[in-house]
Amino acid sequence: MVQKRTLGRTGLQVSVVGFGGTWISQLSMDKAVQVVRRAFELGINYFDTAKLDGDSEEKIGVALKDVREEYILATKTASRTKRESLADFKSSLRRLKTDRLDLIQLHGIDDEKTLEKAMGPNGSLEMCKKARSEGLVDYIGITSHKPHVLIKAIETNEFDTVLVPLNVVTRQALEELIPLAKDLDIGVAIMKPLSAKTSKLITCLYEPSLSLLSNEPELKTLLGQDNSSMVQNAIRFVLAQDVSVVVTGMKSIEEVETAAKVGEAYRGLTEDEEKRFRAQFEGKYCRDCGLCLPCPQNLDTAAILRFHTLSVTYGFKNWAKRLYDGLEVDVDKCTECGECEPKCPYKLPIISMLKEAQVCLQR
Ligand code: SF4
Ligand code: SF4
């Protein structure tokens, strides 16, 4: 059976591998029920879905209706007002065929303005707290792609959990967020363990049905030569961090069994894995927060610096060059206007870093 860890101050015992509901919206009801049920049978007890994930809530509701007390159900509202998020909440209960949730999460709060709105008067947090006081939900969490926003959120002490991306090439959460969450006893759930944020879009390593979109030889050197090894190693990397549950999207029984096997067998990284997964963040490096954007010349500064990190820190030199080649605007277009630098909370010398990146990334 899949091992369990404690989800921070909630005290919930969650399987180290959680079921992410996104992909089952692409399956028929029968197939989705089989996939979800197989996950439950193998000891996965953390099911994370969202009102925005197509009909995933409905499918999880049908698949697990008779075992509601035996698993942990987490969903999300992407509405920012009390009134709209209440409608989401009611709809989620109905679709999930339950009268209570374990965890409701504010979904995709990727900037501070949105956080302020959701936490302000008549914001969605008020709805969550009211639902909690009425016994309709036990805990409140927040999800974001931006660790710096989650740091602000958990400092308010209003949230019991965070859900944030973490994978072999997206490690920003390890720097400040996860240690802070640990100090505050906030549960840490991880999303996108198999995804690499390589451009504006998230590029999945594993999507769908064991077919790798990213066939990068350099990534294979890090994670393994076949799909199954890559998936297992990518999950093992995340399990080695101070996190409670790795939520990964699954859409076939084979994928469920692969992920569950890792969650059952994991006993720490081998010496060789520790060496391979080590990344040297030295000196000045971009945390990819995006706060320096927009640039009047339309340079995607965050992406360029991300590719540079991919090359320098992780050794993905060819991959990074190809990604840089794919950008519409390159560093030559920078007029050195200086607008970006004061916006960087880490006080990075962005202009000189872009120049260094260009030298490194040009073919
Ligand atoms: S200094 Fe260059 S990168 Fe920064 S905002 Fe100006 S043009 Fe854009
Ligand atoms: S350069 Fe600074 S502001 Fe821009 S993305 Fe990187 S860390 Fe954030």
How would you describe what is shown here?
The structure is a single chain. The chain is built from 15 helices and 12 strands. The model is unreliable at 199-213 (pLDDT under 50). The radius of gyration is 21 Å and the shape is globular. The longest helix is centred in the N-terminal third of the chain and has 15 residues, at 82-96. The protein folds into 2 domains: 4-275, Alpha-Beta Barrel (TIM Barrel), CATH 3.20.20.100; 301-361, no CATH class. Helix 3 links the parallel strand 5 (72-77) and strand 6 (101-106). It is of the alpha/beta class and 363 residues long. Helices cover 41% and strands 15% of the residues. The structure holds iron/sulfur cluster (SF4) (2 copies).
CATH first level of the largest domain: which class? Alpha Beta
Question: Averaged pLDDT, please?
Answer: 91
- For the record, the CATH architecture of the largest domain stands as Alpha-Beta Barrel
- Uncertain ranges: 199-213
Quickly give the structural class. alpha/beta
* Shape by Cα distribution: globular
Write the H/E string, N to C. EEEHEHEHEHHEHEHHEEEHHEHHHHH
CATH topology of the largest domain: TIM Barrel
Estimate nothing, just give the exact number of structural domains: 2
DSSP helix fraction:
40-55%
Percentage of residues in strands: 5-15%
Report the sheet with the most strands, covering strand number, pairing sense and barrel closure: 8 strands, parallel, barrel
Number of helices: 15
Please provide the count of β strands: 12
- So, the CATH homologous superfamily of the largest domain? NADP-dependent oxidoreductase domain
CA gyration radius, whole angstroms: 21 Å
- N→C terminal distance: 48 Å
The spatial strand order of the largest sheet comes to 3-4-5-6-7-8-9-12
Which ligands accompany this protein?
Answer: iron/sulfur cluster
